[in-house]
Amino acid sequence: MYYAGAVLLHNYVRRWDDPQDRRGWACSATAGGPEYHKRIMICTHTDVVGSLLRPPELLQAREAAAGRLSRPEFKAIEDRAVDEAVDLQERAGMEVVTDGEMRRLSFQSQMTEAVEGFGAWDLDAFLWGKWHGDTAIGDWTKPRPPRLGVVDKLRRKRHLSVEEFVYLRSRTTRIPKVTLPSPSLFANLWSRDVSAGAYPTLESFLSDVAQILHDEVEELIRLGATYIQIDAPHYTLLLDPRTRAFYESQGWRFDQWLRLGIELDNAVMVESPAVTFGFHLCRGNQASRWLVEGGYDRLARSVFKQVRAQRLLLEYDDPRSGSFEPLREVPEDKMVVLGLVTTKRPKLETPEALRSRIMEASRFVPLERLALSPQCGFATSIVGNELTVEDERRKLELIGSTARDIWS
Q1: What is the pLDDT of residues 248-273, one digit of tens each?
Q2: CA 310 to chain centre
Q3: Has residue 344 got a pLDDT over 90?
Q4: Which of 121, 172, 173, 373 has the largest count of CB atoms under 10 Å?
């Protein structure tokens, strides 16, 4: 999947996996000269990060599922929500689509739902922190649950995202993307006080998490997945001393988080010439709020250069993300997906402003290796951001039309 010295070829080719398949554009990355292809990399100029707003019917059904809905009834409602999400993305002109993460409580909850050993947890396990909002939204603080932590050896009950992929693949003619959380993100679910009996060290726990995710990726590839994204928002939390304090209290220094965390991420990204991996960084995204600010400068050399993913999906919707200067560190065999369209506010960006920003970024990464996306998901948990489905639609359509204008 990752080859030293690989170079990106800018001759875009339509990839047909079978006569009925119209799943978008791919470009070739080669090593050892142009005489043979080492891998096919998805090189679309539009992308989506993952989550979309959950429809009210699904939110109500989730609340009622425990008592008043049968499992088949609930699954039918989930399926309809996915169908609507796919239709929204396709009509907006997206070349890559997800299932909107309609089947998840949070973008990372499929791990705790599919795997035994985490003990008691709820949505607060993924929402805690000191969140910042604009003057209209305001700040919000949620303490970390005091007894949060893995309590037993992890044991997978079912696959995490296979169902999501198989259903999505059957519903779209575009490139279906599956998102998975970065292994070291789950440092949040290890505690010296609670977890020592099962996992005496953070390393031993995260090693098992990474193995579960590795096995998940292998199964997704076996079933035909061609685009898998790793979500890693915790790396940017290392930029702020206040949020970094928690991660360092778990036992790793800043440099260890980068080195060991990336090793775990790379272990998950199974080598396969037919699969493209994405890697998403943001600064927190819940209910239109954020956790930290700061540019990618301290992360770029390690993350951009060393992570095996071919597509870097980077939040860049406002000054909190810093300048494009760190993009100098992006190797020639990677694409950068610029998250310029905010999911936190309903105000619509202008095509002119987006074009200007993309051209600014092209000073550091060639235009053909750039793409456009939202800055993050529209609903990284069931809480969702303060937008409407109509706002969501207009923003996705803007991404599609802007990309066509620039790269067609």
Answers
A1: 999 899 999 999 999 999 999 998 99
A2: 13
A3: yes
A4: 373
Beta pairing, strands 311-315 & 335-341: parallel
H or E segment at 311?
Answer: strand 311-315
- 223 within domain boundaries: yes
pLDDT tens sequence across 196-205: 999 999 999 9
Q: Which domain holds residue 251?
A: 45-407
Domain for residue 6, yes or no?
A: no
Tell me if 209 sits within 8 A of 154, measured CB to CB. Answer: yes
Q: Does any domain span residue 5?
A: no
Taking CA atoms, 29 is separated from 157, 191, 349, in Å, by 37, 42, 33
User: Between 9 and 79, whose confidence is greater?
Assistant: 79
Tokens of 39: 């891998």
For 281, how many CA atoms within 13 A lie in the half-sphere containing its CB?
27
Does residue 194 have a pLDDT over 50? yes
Domains of the chain: total? 1
The enclosing domain of 239 has a CATH number of: 3.20.20.210
The reply to whether 130 falls in a domain is yes
Closest CA to 124 of 101, 149, 104, 143: 143
- Rounded alpha-carbon distances, angstroms, from residue 37 to 18, 34, 331: 19, 7, 18
State the Cα–Cα distance between residues 217 and 268, nearest whole angstrom.
7
**Span 358-406, pLDDT tens digits:** 999 999 999 999 999 999 999 999 999 999 999 999 999 999 999 999 9
